[in-house]
Amino acid sequence: MKKYCFLLIFLCLAGYYGQSQDMADMWDSTTTKNPNKHIQWFKDAKFGLFIHWGLYSKLGGTWNGKHYYGSGEWIMNQAKIPVRKYEQVAKTFNPTHFNADQWARLAKEAGVKYMVITAKHHEGFSMFDSKVTDYDIVDATPYKKDPMKSLAAAARKRGIQFGFYYSQFQDWYEPNGGRNTWDYTESKKDYQRYYREKAIPQIKELLSNYGPLGIMWFDTPGGMTKDQTRAFVNGLRKLQPQCLFSSRVGQGMGDYKDFGDSEVPPVPMEGAWESIYTHNDTWGYIERDFNFKSPKEIIQLLATVASRGGNLMLNIGPDGEGNIPYYSAKFLKETGDWLSVNGKSIYGTTAGFIPKQPWGVTTEKPGKLYLQIFTRPNNDLLLVPGCLPQVNKVYALDGGQPLGFTKKGTDLLVDLSKLKRTVSASTVIVVECKGALPAYQSQAPVTVSAAYDQNLIEAAYAKVSANAQIKSLTYSHYYGDWKHTTCVTDLTDTTDQATFTVRFADKGDYRLVLEYSCGALSAGQEGQLLIGGKTFWYRTLKTGEFNRKAPLMFIQHPVAIYTVDKPGVYKITIKPATDGTPSKPSKELFKLKSIIAVPI
Ligand code: FHN
């Protein structure tokens, strides 16, 4: 039953994921029905470490004195550096500070269960000892050693699955590799020759010389038909049948789905999948990028991804000397400290059956529901909606403090007053039950309560009508640091509506704030918010245009104060106030990210 609920959600989101995003979209949903028999370790792992390390790490985002912003590993492409100049960087690449043991120890302390490192990124340089080319770390640099050998061994020694990232199509060094248009003419390239002469032999080396690999992490597929991709996959699989292939091998193949960079599905998703984020805004090292996610952000992201059934692989970018950025090491260790106490609520769990609540998210194991509390309720009474089977015991995971609870209808109310007020990114409460937990409650109303400073009613929970859609919008702040925000779009005519089913748990007055993005053409239009038979009017405010290559700005626009006389389930509808006319067609009202309900 549970399985079908997930499938239903998956199908509902088909439009959401149907648009062209990163290559990650090409994952075959049949994999969920016919999974690779070696997938279980991956599904249980939940937390992985991604490492981008190459010649670009030496450049750190600067070429010829000019600073480049965005993703450091793209500097060759951004600055259109000719191959013959770029290859000179290898002569200065001497990462004497690299210490495989230190890196693996950090990974262990961070609590990751797998590690994936760039063997060859789009720049074309091999960070391993390759007999296929001399453009590799052993032959072309003063370092002359193969760091991948020692890293694979050090990771394995600590029980961490080891894997390689390999850019199988984009190779800006090779005349026949994909996407170097500044040195070579794309139309003259023979991609098959590139696959035959470099990519396939090198991937074979990786699969043959580094022991049992957990993952081959492909990226940005291209230049192969579906049949060619199948032959490519089948040929490589023979070398290490247990090694999982990521969905970015392309053409709907792969053993698990990778979402776009920095993307999490807004609700649980069936099958094995992974969200990939980088610690700051770049994948490869940039010396000017200090936007490191705090331990709190990492932990809450990890718990959120786990609550939807997936893994988080978090990237770090060591520099050209082999140093891991100070804040990456520090914040990863702090994440590991939290995991060492609360790991049971993450590793080996599946998605929680309760949708996101104002206090946080849930994960589960048979007979156990883990409440990940990001925000403690002001009244210390935690409302857990959703028809739990017989509850035997409720306690804090850290320290085991038993907590009082009562059942009220289909709700469980947990008394947190005995719980010490400690600072934690997520305080985990365990609810032990007798019997199976229910299936994911996709139809449950969004909870709003006066016990929180604010309550988010997110676009993903809308029911849309007519032409309105729920879409994941992809954009970037710097070059390549993709962001994704789920919004209701195409609210153009009065029949295009977004309706949210909301349960107000407490009576009182609530300020309703619309969080939206609005371009110049949409600004100044009138919209309505309908609730409990009342209509509230507003005029949209300009924030800026939606453009994949620029930040998508959102405004928080208070539009109503509504008095909830009686706790219960209410509908909130957002729609344009008027239809267009043939002479003055209406425009999309805005791109709605959320309604924020603020108790006043
Ligand atoms: O273009 C690459 C990018 O440099 C980085 O490696 C990311 C990581 O997922 N993958 C590609 C873009 O999706």
UniProtKB/TrEMBL annotation:
Classification via InterPro entries: FUC_metazoa-typ, GH, Glyco_hydro_29, Glyco_hydro_29_N, Glyco_hydro_b
Cellular component per GO, a single term: lysosome
Organism lineage string: Bacteria, Pseudomonadati, Bacteroidota, Chitinophagia, Chitinophagales
Boundaries of every Glycoside hydrolase family 29 N-terminal domain copy: 26-344
EC number(s) from the headed UniProt entry: 3.2.1.51
UniProt xrefs under SUPFAM superfamilies: (Trans)glycosidases
PANTHER family according to UniProt: ALPHA-L-FUCOSIDASE, ALPHA-L-FUCOSIDASE-RELATED
Keyword Signal: yes
Function field: Alpha-L-fucosidase is responsible for hydrolyzing the alpha-1,6-linked fucose joined to the reducing-end N-acetylglucosamine of the carbohydrate moieties of glycoproteins.
Hydrolase listed as a keyword: yes
Keywords from the named record: Glycosidase, Hydrolase, Signal
Signal peptide range in chain numbering: 1-20
Organism of provenance: Arachidicoccus ginsenosidivorans
The protein's name in its UniProt record: alpha-L-fucosidase
Annotated GO MF terms: alpha-L-fucosidase activity
Entry-linked Pfam families: Alpha_L_fucos (PF01120)
Family to which the UniProt record says this protein belongs: Belongs to the glycosyl hydrolase 29 family.
Gene Ontology terms: biological process: fucose metabolic process; glycoside catabolic process
